Amino acid sequence: MTHATQMAGADSTAVTELLLELANSDANYSDVHIEHDRPVMVRMPTGWQEVAEAPMLTKQDITDFLQATEPGWKAQIDDHAISRAIDLYSCRLRLNAFKTNGGKSLAINVRRQPLRPLALEETGLPMYLRTQVTHQRGLILVTGQTGAGKTTTMASLLDHVNQTRNAHIITIEDPIEFVHERNRSIISSKEVGIDTPSFAQGLRDSLRQKPDVIMVGEIRDRDTADTVFTAAESGHLVLASLHTNSVLGAINKMLSWFPDETTHRSRMLADSLLCVISQTLIPSADGMRRVLAPEILLNQDKAVAECLEKPDKHTSLREFMNESRDKMSQSLNNVLVQLVREGKITDRDAMRNTHDRVGLMGLLSAKLI
């Protein structure tokens, strides 16, 4: 992990000066893209925009910065992108440096995030979700596209555990995103590539380290998914993220690792799953911020467990969420309609982000009548 002292050591570089200026600005961007001989870009709620006042950086500017923050970068970047985190006084930066254009160009993507986890009420998620982390065992899946706030949500849930439970929390991340300070819980954070060779190995090792709560930064393969199932069934609360765009997508993804065991794994999921949170971030109506639209399925109703247990009934879960039969589960379309009605997002952006356009069109039309 790269720390603020290394950033300070690079304070003579043009890239460092730019990042420090942007990090302390009030602009509501999430990411910065730096590429030599190209305009510096920031990702605003409505998309990528050029930073008009930023200087055009050279390849030497970028190499000077990489040399200052990662002295062995030349040997590493030929094989893979370089990921690092830098703590500043006001925020945390996640850097990813990589080659482009057949190795002729260098680029750096930087994500800005808070130093400390957000309180759950600041995330835009329903407050009843905090009850899910009071369980002693079970699986919470957080899913969504890259940049949808999955890490932020899991950090907020873990922070609630840290404030309310005398537990041992183990996180396995690539890289470590939030630094949790001990409150009521013991917190052990492992970084893939430094503290453990892989998510799967870190997870297997953690089962022998007396954890109460385990957070897996991402389920990337069958081995990790298998160990997640085992951990959730053996008396641990497990939080894990996936890259899918819906609740059903997350369920299908978990089962896709086991094509020859679908029925068995469906039963395991019915027994261990607590909830699925699928996140979508949408530009606000004024384009100045991002609004969270969460699709949520809670497995606390017998009907949900029965649908999960039988693979041919998984699609019935969409109807359950559409009707919000338990008064807490909710489909993405119903959330989008509510956000449009409240004036928080536009109907155009709602249509752009739904995975059921026909259904949403009908709901929006009904609201206008």
Give the structure's gist in a few sentences.
The protein has helices spanning 4-9, 14-23, 59-69, 73-77, 150-164, 199-206, 222-233, 247-256, 262-272, 302-309, 316-323, 332-341, 347-353, 357-368, and strands spanning 31-35, 41-44, 47-50, 82-87, 92-100, 105-113, 138-144, 168-173, 186-191, 213-216, 237-242, 273-283, 290-298. The protein is of the alpha/beta class and 369 residues long. A hairpin with a 4-residue loop joins strand 5 (92-100) and strand 6 (105-113).
The SSE order reads HHEEEHHEEEEHEEHEHEHHEEHHHHH
Instruction: Report the helical percentage.
Output: 25-40%
Rg is 22 Å
Supply the helix-strand structural class: alpha/beta
Q: Give me the count of strands.
A: 13
Q: The CATH topology of the largest domain is what?
A: Rossmann fold
